[in-house]
């Protein structure tokens, strides 16, 4: 099986590459110009699975709708290879409860709106694809990956810190590798470990000092991705959702 990973020079790609449980072709903007249709088609010729990590993230000076363009260019060049496009839990916004792929979306930012537009484009495209609504990835996040001395974190009056759906980078690599080899794939799937984890617990498990700051009315207390669909394809252990397990995964540079 031939797997090609586009846009692997970013933070997520750098986390995944040393943890990938198999062979894959890792490309960056320096090795493949995704805007060059002929070059991209040549690279993807004969591929079975394509993961498109290329995209615009919040804080970038590039237009957010470039996420739609990059995904479309990948689908156009894929020639029937199954394409995995990275969306985000941000498409759910501040909706309550366990967030299901079949439920509503409520994007609250230009980034989230662009990701949702990308999803809609992919559904209408003739090339087969699966949209991955990715939760927080340890090391590519603003908490573990963005920590620095003097770090502050929202805390609610009862002492809780925001809880999010997380996944360790090695577990994520295992999940993606498993999906690439799966015969039956959904059009959209949430990607995270099954249970949420408190951000403060992650910092504590990693031994990273932090100071609390009062949560505001805009602070979202919990973002919980429903992973029932994913769990039909990939097995998880209880440790995959714990702060200590996620941190251990992040600190281990190798495959599961």
Automatic annotation (TrEMBL):
* Superkingdom of the organism of origin: Bacteria
- Pfam families annotated for this entry? Epimerase
Q: Could you tell me which residue ranges the NAD-dependent epimerase/dehydratase domain spans?
A: 28-141
> Coiled coil: which residue ranges?
none
Q: Which PANTHER family would you find in this protein's record?
A: BIFUNCTIONAL POLYMYXIN RESISTANCE PROTEIN ARNA
Q: What is this protein called?
A: NAD-dependent epimerase/dehydratase domain-containing protein
Its taxonomic path starts at: Bacteria, Pseudomonadati, Pseudomonadota, Alphaproteobacteria, Rhodobacterales
């Amino acid at each position: 099986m031939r797997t090609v990973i586009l846009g692997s020079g970013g933070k997520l790609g750098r986390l995944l590459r040393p943890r990938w449980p198999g062979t894959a072709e890792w490309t960056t903007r320096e090795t493949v110009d995704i805007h060059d249709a002929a070059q991209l088609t040549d690279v993807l010729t004969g591929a079975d699975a394509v993961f498109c990590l290329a995209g615009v993230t919040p804080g970038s000076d590039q237009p957010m709708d470039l996420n739609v363009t990059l995904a479309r260019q990948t689908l156009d060049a894929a020639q029937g290879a199954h394409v995995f496009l990275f969306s985000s839990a941000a498409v759910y916004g501040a909706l309550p409860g366990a967030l299901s792929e079949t439920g509503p979306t409520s994007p609250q930012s230009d980034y989230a709106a662009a990701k949702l537009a990308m999803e809609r484009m992919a559904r209408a495209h003739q090339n087969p694809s699966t949209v991955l609504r990715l939760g927080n990835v340890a090391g590519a996040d603003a908490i573990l990956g963005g920590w620095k001395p003097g770090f502050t974190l929202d805390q609610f009056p009862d002492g809780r810190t925001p809880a999010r759906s997380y996944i360790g980078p090695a577990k994520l690599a295992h999940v993606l590798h498993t999906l690439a080899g799966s015969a039956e794939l959904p059009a959209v799937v949430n990607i995270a470990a099954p249970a949420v984890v408190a951000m403060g617990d992650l910092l504590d498990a990693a031994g990273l000092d932090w100071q609390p700051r009062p949560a505001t009315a805009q602070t979202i207390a919990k973002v919980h991705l429903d992973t029932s669909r994913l769990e039909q394809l990939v097995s998880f252990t209880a440790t995959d959702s714990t702060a200590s397990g996620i941190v251990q995964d992040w600190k281990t540079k190798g495959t599961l």
